[in-house]
Fold this sequence. Notes:
By secondary structure, this protein is of the alpha/beta class. The protein contains 2 helices and 6 strands; from the N terminus they run E-E-E-E-H-E-H-E. It is globular and about 35 Å long.
Amino acid sequence: MRTVDLTHNPDIEVIGANNSLLETLYITRVNKLSRVIVNDSRLTSESLDNLIHAVVYNGVYGGAFNWGSTAGRPSAISIQSLRALKQYRGWTIISEA
């Protein structure tokens, strides 16, 4: 499975796609995400950016985001957003950037 559509699940709290073939992920901006693990996946840069923005838009305090080595790289704006999550919302960010 290379594409997953989670746009109809606003109650999603955890996304785990570690070591997966997942390339494209669609997610609603309304969510309850507190943990995201997409390390060693094939997520595209666009999917990774969308996921980061979904977390920023509705993320909770004290979550964790692990994007490690993905096929795509987050944009400069997304990296700034991850830093803000860490600084202002107490998120743990694990990456190779």
